[in-house]
Amino acid sequence: MGLTGPVTTRWLLGDQLGPHFLDAPDQPVLMIEARSVFARRRFHRAKAHLVLSAMRHRAAELGVQCTYVSTDTYAQALDEVAAPLSVCHPTSSAALRFVVGRGNIDVIPARGFATSMEDFDAWVQSRGRRRLLMEDFYRDARRRRHVLMDDDEPVGGRWNFDADNREPPPRTPTLGVAEPEWPVEDEIDQQVRDDLDRWERDGDVSFLGHDGPRRFAATRAEALALLDGFIAHRLPAFGPHEDAMLAADPWMAHSLVSAPMNLGLLDPMEVVARAEEAYRRGEAPLASVEGFVRQVMGWRDFVWHLYWHLPESYRDLNALEATEPLPDWFADLDANNVDAACLSGILADVRDHGWVHHIPRLMVLGNYAMQRGWEPAQVTDWFHRAFVDGYDWVMVPNVVGMSQYADGGILATKPYAAGGAYIKRMSDYCRGCRYDPGTRVGPDACPFTAGYWAFLHRNRERLSGNPRIAQPLSGLDRLSDLEPLLAQESARGSSAP
Ligand code: SF4
């Protein structure tokens, strides 16, 4: 890695599409659309559409400044390029290895994150032997970037408003806030659809899910309109219900900026600044603004840095020795063949949009996968392929560590396992379900409630040293129906609940 002269052509990868990935507005640009990326793995079709639409829109904006190569592999395209190239630090270890391995591409520091790799390293050094905690990282980042600070103190006198932001959903079918600013498709989207249809017909690729109207921003203008609408109409309601789920309202007051931010169309610091301005103008409550800032410059950056900080073998950890394959009904988003209302509704949302917010991901999809002992590497791969905002750096720490507890407690202090009582409290799914969240055994037994106890039983030894799970483990001994429950869940196996 070295310094970049003004004459290098900037190779923009598909998630580096904003103006902040160029050193000057007129810098020559190379973009490569490599079909082999889609041939290797079965991605959600809405994701393939979004990425290709975003790349082609960016190339159209840049006009003659951009050389756009459609090819089979990156290597084929690069072999044809004579100009000296530079690239911003890629976002996956495989891509970094490839770029460095070419030997003649200048790799410059990562852009698109609130904390630099140097500042993260300095923070890690400052911890000594103490655990790497997101909360402490986040507070350090707030101080360093001076976000939501009054001099050296957090505004409002508190760093953390989580306790205010855990309300159950309202008793209405939707949250009742204005919808997100939906993008309007154009001829580039139509051309992308035609190409994807042709590639599928030719048997070159196969996709998951539905490619309905494009829901996520593919251009900087669309991303800014989305952000404007969120700040003006949705941010005030974001905080209180950010952990709640409504069957008829997948979007609730979530920002949807993760997709354009992970495409590089928005910089996290501009997003955070807009939220803080709304608070300072008195247009959004502090709890909502803090909860949002925590997600953007806390969690998002923390996960990014852990991805590079942890050894590459982290992705293969399997502390709970979970070895079951993903069943087809789950892997293929076959929501119509699932009776469990929460799982069916959320799989349908993923099928239709390639997106649900963090709680359905963690507490329904991930929770079910962990309860059933599905192999973490397969679960990680599925989340990466099925979500429009999923990338290797996002999903490896989030799924291996947070969601599946496959790292044995490096990232999370306890497994995010929960029974139907949690889903009943935080959603309206149970009202329309054929199962009963309070029943463990019998035809009405909730698969999440029964699965929770079966999970604890299976992992009793492995989790016995964790004080945060001691109370639920001791609850196992008080279950009078554990034997029939285990027989019931064993018989359920990998069939759709
Ligand atoms: Fe999900 Fe169980 Fe509630 Fe049905 S009863 S919606 S399966 S948590």
Topology of this structure?
Elements: E1 9-11, E2 29-34, H1 36-40, H2 45-62, E3 66-71, H3 74-79, E4 85-88, H4 93-102, E5 105-108, H5 117-127, H6 134-145, E6 149-150, E7 153-154, H7 187-201, H8 220-238, H9 258-262, H10 268-280, H11 286-309, H12 328-331, H13 341-353, H14 358-371, H15 376-386, H16 392-403, H17 420-426, H18 447-458, H19 460-463, H20 470-477, H21 482-492
The structure holds iron/sulfur cluster.
Short description:
Helix content is 47%, strand content 5%.
Report on the architecture of this protein.
With 497 residues, this protein is mainly alpha-helical. The chain contains 21 helices and 7 strands. The strands form 2 sheets. Strands 3-2-1-4-5 form a 5-stranded parallel β-sheet, with helices on both faces. It has a two-stranded antiparallel ribbon with strand order 6-7. Strand 4, helix 4 and strand 5 form a beta-alpha-beta unit. Helix 8 packs across helix 10. The longest helix has 24 residues. The chain is globular. 46% of the residues are buried. The protein binds iron/sulfur cluster. The site of iron/sulfur cluster has 15 residues, from helix 13, helix 17 and helix 18.
> Would you list the SSEs in sequence order as H and E?
EEHHEHEHEHHEEHHHHHHHHHHHHHHH
Class derived from helix and strand content: mainly alpha
Bound molecules: iron/sulfur cluster
The biggest sheet amounts to:
5 strands, parallel
Estimate the global geometry from the Cα principal axes: globular
Strand content: 5-15%
User: How many individual helices?
Assistant: 21
Number of strands: 7
- The overall pLDDT average reads 95
